[in-house]
Amino acid sequence: MALAFDEMNLPGGALRPAYLELSRWLKETPPDALEYRRQEAELLFRRIGITFAVYGDAEAQERLIPFDVIPRIMSAKEWAILEKGLKQRVRALNMFLRDIYHNRDILRADIIPDDLIFQNPVFRPEMNGQDVPHDVYVHIAGIDIVRVDSENFYVLEDNARTPSGVSYMLENREIMMRLFPDLFARHRVAPVEKYPDELLSALRSVAPLSAAAEPTVALMTPGVYNSAYYEHSFLADKLGIELVEGRDLIVKNDEVFMRTTEGLKRVDVIYRRVDDDYLDPLTFRPDSALGVPGLMSAYAAGNVTLANAVGTGIADDKAVYSYMPDIVKFYLSEEPILKNVPTWRCREPKDLAYVLDNLGELVVKEVHGSGGYGMLIGPAATKATIEAFRDKLKREPEGFIAQPTLALSTCPTCTASGLAPRHVDLRPFVLTGSKHVTIVPGGLTRVALKEGSLVVNSSQGGGTKDTWILDE
Amino acid sequence: MLSRTAENLYWLARYVERAEYLARTIEATLRVTALPNTYVGKTNEWDSALLTAGVSASFYEIHDEADERSVVDYLSFAPSNPSSIRNCIENARLNSRSVRTALTGEMWDTINGAWIDLQEVWGKGTKTREELTKFLRFVQETSLRFDGSAYRTMLRNDAYWFSRLGLHLERADNTARILDVKYHVLLPEEEHVGGPLDYYQWTSILRSVSALTAYHWVYRETLKPWLIADLLILNDSLPRSLASCYGNLVRNLDQIGVAYGRQGAAQRHARGVRNRLEHSHMDDIFQHGVHEFIQEFIGDNSRLGEIITKQYLV
Question: How confident is the model at residue A53, as a pLDDT?
Fold first, then answer.
């Protein structure tokens, strides 16, 4: 693997321009002052209760995501490219979903094989022919971006179901501004605080026709035991909407109501952070206690908008991902601005053979996996793990894709032995309403805190950083 | 507001109030048991602490005898006791998490901070009297801070009113329970009235509802059992008296009624109980039997809880 691109220091010792002021500030700031503020930040996070749960970890039911106080900085020029590319990508995702659940032009044009869609467990036949307001399926997208050099950004994953992490983007900024006012005074950092407002107006813009002039929006959570519960309550609070669980909702005559102390109140738009499978026990998993019986029939009747729509999983499926450049070209007749990471589809025999021969150098991911679970990072894996994956691949090749091990860019990060480069990625949040696609400048930077590690997922020991887009 | 939110707020306040009451009960019992036997007689004070906490039956399922160590541990930390102080704080935190958005930052901070301390400082329980005393102070301070931050920072809307309902309902129940267990020492016809034993029993009752100083201010007299009963039952200037709790319950229910534009069974029932308290005199209560009066009150109070639940919380 080549030496990773560092976002602050160029080889030979020169600084990249966006980091000039930060570097000056770091030289003036004694290391123990930095350590002191780091502890202060941790205390703040704990007091506010910003925690997440790690599944299968009974010991630490609630944990803090480690926060690194060194910001990750990008210039306005770099951001402009990203922003354009992200908007393009999300537009294409929405058009793709509309097409898949209606005319299926893209299948007829033989750009994507039929069985990749119809054999796919995240394809929702319930959505066939179902219209959604303004043809928006993915209202909130979290697109994972990595960079490998000064020019090239790659999309690592499209998260089009219930992407999380935006509360960290907002809280990281709050805490940074509280702890480092002097550092902020020396930069012009584009603000992110408009996100809740923009999210609310996007959600209201897609209310069903039968909704009142002032539509009622609610955020639906699986409950306090969900790993992202903090974020759900945080967002509901910022948006000023009710945080509901399935048991708070009831469907009558194909309309959705919430149970309040003053009786039933109609709900028009549900920002749901519950997976498709658990939404409605009458349609999906009958054992789901998280859902609302009849929700899908109210949805089919057009009396409630679900954000994101049901069935968006087919757009962020990792096997479909490999077709994204074709999808962008097909619907928009434009060249994709953001690159895809080259991907081998193990369902194709030629690709599978290559992957099996090169397991030691590749990253292998489950097509339907997420959160960094169940993946193989060849260069870091033991022989036994690699052999175990070889068996899995042979047994169920269509369940996997493989990608080259990218040398993710690094950023200076506080470690036990002072500042050191650590690998990062970026998850910007893209909002789509009836008229606009918007992105607040920045996103959530995740950082792999272990030396050399490429896994940034919080469930796997990753941390976060504040992300600064400099206004020039 | 969501019924579930109201329910969480209501129970959150109840749990915090209960934790404080348990801490006070333990503290008062510690004081009585520290006295020489000639002052307190042979009654098992730890047994009566269990009774006032309403957990006697479940305690004796796993213990043969009630002594300081076993009772303090059971009331404070035992995972097997659903209303131990620890479980109360844990439940309060769980309820708080579910209604984060309905709490002010200060309230959340109090409960979350207490929950963190409960694990980091008090995770292993207490070993010495000194530690125990500190723990009991910590619990009472948590409740005071919570109550104070609710009072000082919450909007005066239904969220506030439901939380107050939980507080006053729980408080009325606690005061009634201690009266129910100790009513016999308040009966004037007992032989050894005014003996040293009674005196310390009486101060212990007053202490557990933080009313010892209040007593002296209100009556300017030495301790008299019928005045103690009067203070705890009928005197609505004492925040923990049954009369004061019902004054507050009626007021908060009325505010909900006005805001929602409709009254219901809860308002009627609470008013009925309050009117009975307003029109009662200690003489009559003693004549008809304190025990019977209190029993009836406890029944009425828990019925109000059921009616509120039915009317608003489900």
Answer: 58
Percent of chain A with pLDDT over 70: 96
B18-69 residue pLDDT tens: 999 999 999 988 988 887 766 656 678 899 899 989 899 999 999 999 999 9
Residue of B1, B2, B108, B163 to mutate, interface with A, max A Cβ within 10 Å = B2
Residue ranges of chain A assigned to CATH 3.40.50.11290: 209-303
Interior angle at CA A306, CA A220 and CA B159, nearest 5: 30
Q: Does domain A209-303 have CATH number 3.40.50.11290?
A: yes
Question: How large a percentage of chain A has pLDDT more than 90?
Answer: 74
Round to whole Å and give the CA distance between B178 and B229.
11
Chain B contacts to A (CB-CB under 8 A): 1-6, 94, 97-98, 100-101, 108-109, 112-113, 116, 158, 162, 256, 260, 312-314
Residue of chain A with shortest Cα separation from B158? A261
Nearest CA in chain A to B97: A224
Alpha-carbon separation of residue B9 from A51, A400, B16, B153, B184 (angstroms): 22, 47, 11, 15, 36
Cα distance between residue B301 and residue B314, in whole Å: 19
ipTM of this complex = 0.80
Q: Which residues of B touch A243 (CB under 8 A)?
A: 100-101
User: What's this model's pTM, rounded to 2 decimal places?
Assistant: 0.85
CA distance B23 to chain A (A): 25
